[in-house]
Amino acid sequence: MRDEFRADLQIVSQLLVDMAEAVRAAMRKATKALLTADRDAAEAVIARDAEVDGLYRQVDDRVYDLLARQAPVASDLRTVVTALQVAADLERMGDLADHVAKTALRRHPSPAVPAELRGVFTEMAEVADRIAEKIAKVLSRPDADLAAELDRDDDAMDALHRELFAVLLHDDWPYGAETAIDGALLGRFYERYADHAVNAGRQVVYRVTGDTI
Amino acid sequence: MRDEFRADLQIVSQLLVDMAEAVRAAMRKATKALLTADRDAAEAVIARDAEVDGLYRQVDDRVYDLLARQAPVASDLRTVVTALQVAADLERMGDLADHVAKTALRRHPSPAVPAELRGVFTEMAEVADRIAEKIAKVLSRPDADLAAELDRDDDAMDALHRELFAVLLHDDWPYGAETAIDGALLGRFYERYADHAVNAGRQVVYRVTGDTI
User: Fold this and answer.
1) Chain B, 112-141: which have a CB under 8 Å from a chain A CB?
2) Over 90: is that where the pLDDT of A200 sits?
3) Into which family does the record put it (chains A, B) (predicted)?
4) Cβ of A44 under 8 Å from any chain B Cβ?
């Protein structure tokens, strides 16, 4: 029974790593679509969002099956239920990559992001990518130090978000309301992507240490 | 054991209803703060967000306790785990009411919403309120018909969201980028509030019928 539990849990854990890698790849490609007005990249992200949803359903099925057959308690119970909550965060990260891709597509062949904002979005995308990479690592092997780094990365994302708004709200903003709105919503997509990743990281650490960070 | 399970479940169910009523009251008050530049109302919403978070933690604790002590299976298991997912949606609805209140406060004593947008935000708030009311009812007594109504309410919210953007992106928009950005983000807060409510409603119906809608 115990070995079976470990084997089942290993499958769930691998599904979460697969989800994390998929939503990382999705945001990388969505950023490429955004910054280079690449229609194929945008369409590929949108087409593949269903894969992430499919992985989420697999996690859901496996977790219910595990709870029903094995009735885990204590830290094993926490581990199994946390998987469901982490999967929900990862699924939402996939949705946010999809939103970025759709914004790029809506403006194609024009770029959705004007020259003044390319720098800040490039940096936001780098932080998002770093965060997604760490989530995949933390899910493979829980690590409180690495999870704490996620909080610092999230602070960096918040600082970039403020920097973005300073540009959008500057008196000299030359592009009018539509481009400002796109910029504000895109900023929110990257920021929420990071928030969900940090939330997932906290859940994993809580599972391991019993402490919230 | 069976009676004890029912009694525990009843407590969890009541906590979810309390959460639904709290996030409904929060969004009503946040809307009042937004449309009447009411500083006290905005501050009250922000101060009380911690109550919703507290209820969420209580649901979390009770669910783990229930799973560990009673090891439910089949539909009982689904009911218990669903409570955790519904609580996560409700908690996020509270956050979104908090975001609306903070936007109102940031612009105080000016109104965050100009005259041209008051109508559409009044309607969005009405839909949000109707949705939150139905969620509280569905949680008290699961009802697939009522849950299906939530989907129609969500369609109404999406239509209002499109109407809002038509105003924001109209060539005659007289208010510049900052007010447009506030309008776009506020629109997203109401729309996401509705999305989370519909998601919670779907979970409850799935729990009862085993069918996704």
Assistant:
1) none
2) yes
3) Belongs to the PhoU family.
4) no
